[in-house]
Amino acid sequence: MNSSIAKRIVNALGKDGLRPFAPLAYYDKHMDCVRVELRDCSFTEERLNEHVTFLEDNYPAPGRSAVAGIMFKGVKHLFTKAGLPLEGVIHVTTILNQFVKNYPELVEERIWKIVNEMDLTVDMSEEPDSLVAA
Amino acid sequence: MESKNVWADEGVRQIEENGEKLYLVAGVDHTGAQKVFGIPKRQLEKHHHRGSNVKLAQFFAIVVPGLVLVEHIFRGLRRPLCDMGDMDADKAKLAFSWKPAWDYWWREADRFEDRRLESREAPDGKVFVVNVSPNAVRQLYPSVDYWIERWYWARRSNTLLKAPVDWENRFDEQLK
Fold it and tell me: Is B53 in contact with A6 (Cβ distance < 8 A)?
């Protein structure tokens, strides 16, 4: 069962094997959110409010924080409303700063801690994840 | 317009339509009618490229067999969401939820060994949620009723045991 799931993934995708994970941030165009993921793990999405959701590792190693990512929702919505361009490679901190400017209640230590853990960028010109708007 | 069946395997059918490789999964909607849920192969390939292997395991082992087992369906995400220029795109999004028996993970020390990607009992007090959108481009992809967009665990509600917590406030309406 356990090895077959890895086999099934690579067979279905026509790949040689699974790839190693590295912390990342990306823009999900159709859900209009930036996801920062620090681990390859099973996440529980813990909704803080309509703008921010924490990604919590369901099975963190002993001594490790459960919070393993964050999602900023309505990114395009916010930038469009503010008349700001949302293109090219953008630092996650730039996006967070824009959120804080518009929603000061987001000044929460947990959020900054995750965002500052690594200097991650988002490539807004990356090919969209799905075809809905293709 | 091209529609070509390439292969079928354990609940996933791969087709090529309008020049795109799509995975099709059987599921049901809020009326109980059978529907086809699609996801572009390149979306899954992107997860593979990122090394989001648990997410891929959850897709093949939870989402694929689970879309016929959905307990609750909600419409409208009640949060800012701009998609395809629509500033109110959250209203069309759907959330399907149920309680699968299994989840997938690996211990941190084992995460570079493919064979150590393991199944385990689903987390306590959690439900599984899949976000989907109705197919707005049926003329291009006629085989697809809904697009699968995202999947994750959420804490379960105390009022609906197979729905995510606070469903009353996070969605516009309950369809099922």
Answer: yes
Name chain A contacts of B128, Cβ cutoff 8 Å. none
What's the whole-number mean pLDDT along residues B139-162? Answer: 97
Res. A36: pLDDT tops 90: yes
ipTM of the complex: 0.90
**Nearest residue to A90 via CA among A14, A23, A26:** A26
Place of tokens 């509600």: B157
Q: Which of B44, B82, B105 sits opposite A32 (nearest CB)?
A: B82
Statement: residue B20 has pLDDT above 50: yes
Residues on chain A touching B48 (C-beta within 8 angstroms) = 9, 13, 15, 18-19
pLDDT in tens, B67-90: 999 999 999 999 989 887 888 889
B146 to chain A: closest CA residue = A132
| Rounded-to-integer distance, Cα B49 and Cα A43, Å | 19
Distance CA B69, CA B174 (A): 17
B71 conformational bin, left if phi > 0, alpha if psi -120 to 50, beta if neither: alpha
Helix (H, G, I), strand (E, B) or coil at B33: coil
3-state secondary structure of A50: coil
Name the residue in chain A with its Cα closest to that of B84: A133
Residue B147, C-beta contacts closer than 8 angstroms, at least 6 positions apart: A30, A130, A131, A132, B37, B38, B39, B132, B133, B134, B135
Residue A73, classed as helix, strand or coil, is: strand
- A12 contacts B9 by C-beta, under 8 angstroms: yes
**Average pLDDT of chain B to the nearest whole number:** 90
In 3D space, the residue among A85, A78, A84, A73 whose CA is nearest the CA of residue A31 turns out to be: A73
Q: Backbone dihedral region of B84: left (phi > 0), alpha (psi from -120 to 50 degrees) or beta?
A: left
CB contact under 8 A, B50 and A26: yes
